[in-house]
Amino acid sequence: RGSRPRRCETGARPQISERSGISGRRKRTNKEGWRRERMEIERAKIGATRDVNGTRKEFLVALPEALGKEVVAEMRDPRDKPLLYLFINVVLFTIPTALLVYALPANHWVGLAYVCTNYILFLQRFALALHYAEHNKIFKKESQFYFLNHIPSLVLCPLFGIPAGMYRLHHVVMHHVENNHFPLDASSTEPYQRDSVMHFIQYLFKYMVGGWILLPIYAARKKLWNLLAEVLAVESVYLLLVYSLYQHNPVATAWVFIVPFCITSFALMFGNWSQHIFIDPKAPQNCYRMTYNCINCPDNQKTFNDGYHIIHHLNSKLHWTQLPVQFMETLGKHAEEGALVFEGIGFFDVGLAVFMGRLDWLADRCVFLQDGVNTTSKKDLLKGIMTERLRPIVR
Question: pTM higher than 0.85 for the full model?
Answer without folding.
Answer: yes
